[in-house]
Amino acid sequence: VGLVIFAAGHGSAKERYNMWAKEKVRYIADKVQRDPYNAQLQALLGDAYFKDGQNYEAEQHLKRALKLQPDFAEAHCNLAVIYHAQSRTTEAREHYERALSIDATLLEARAGLGTLLCRNQRHAQGIRHLETVLVQDSGRVNARYNLGVAYHKIGDFKMAIGHLERVLEQRPNFPSGRGALAQANFGRGLKQLQAKRLPQALGFIEQALALDGTQADFHYGQGLAHLGLEEFEHAATDFAAAVEIESDHVPALHNLAMVFELIGREREAEPLYRRVLELTPHLKTIHAARNADYDERFLLK
C-alpha cells in the first residue's frame, strides 16, 4: 500500500526513526489540543500515529477529521490505508472509492484500491486502476510491482515479466522483486513446456533459476525440458538438484530414477524408486512406482 512507510536499517537507525515518529506525534498533538476543530490537523495527527504504529489512535483522529470535513479526500484515503492494512476489506474499499469520488486525481487512493481489488481476486478491475496510476506517474514502483503480480495471477506472464523487470530497473533491491520475477519467468516457461516448445521453455526456466536457484520446482521444470530434448545427463543433474533442495520431491525422485535407467545407472535407480514407494503409499509395488507418470501437470496443480 502506497502510504505505508517501513523503517529499515540497523537498530540505531530504527530507534532514531521511532523517536522522530513519537516526537512528531507529540508536536502535532499539541497543535490539535490548541485547535481541535481543524480537520487538517486531525488528519495529520492520524497520519503521525499510523507511522508510529498506533493504528487505533490513527483511525480515531482520521474519523474526527472526516466528521469535521466529510469531503476530505486525503483523510478518506489514509483511513482506507489503515483498514487495508488490517484486512478490513469492505471498509477500505468504501473509503478508497469515496476519496476518488471527491478527487479522481488522488493517485494514492487509486493505487490502494487497485491493489485491494487484485488481492481480492478482482483482477480486471484492479489492473485498470493500477494501469491508470502508472500512466499518470510511471515512477510508482509499488503500484508497478502489484500490477506485475496481478498479471501473473491471471496468467499473463509476458506482461508480468515486463512490469517486474521495470521494478528491478527502478529499484534493484525491491523486496520480493527478484522472487516475483523468477516466478513469472517460471510460469511462462511452464506454458512453453505444456505446448512442447522445449527450447523456449528451457530459456524462461533458466532465467527463473538465475534469479532464484533455491526453488526445487524450478530445477524439476528444467529437468523436464532437458528430458523432452533427450538431454539425459542434464535432466539427471536438474532432478538431483530438486531432490537436494526438497528431499521428498516425489516427481523429481521418480524422474531421476527413470533417467538413471535410461543412461545405464540402474543400480542407482532402485533406491530412488523405493523412496517414491515410501512417500506414496497408494503405489503398492516397485513396478507401480516405476510406471507412475510425473510431468509438467504436477507443477500446474
Automatic annotation (TrEMBL):
Name the Gene3D superfamilies for this protein.
Tetratricopeptide repeat domain
Q: Where are the transmembrane segments?
A: none
InterPro entries per UniProt: CellSynth/LPSAsmb/PSIAsmb, TPR-like_helical_dom_sf, TPR_rpt
SUPFAM superfamilies membership: HCP-like
Indicate whether Repeat appears among the record's keywords.
Answer: yes
Q: Does the keyword Repeat apply?
A: yes
Per UniProt, the keywords (alphabetical) are: Repeat, TPR repeat
Q: What is this protein called?
A: Uncharacterized protein
Q: Which organism is it from?
A: marine metagenome
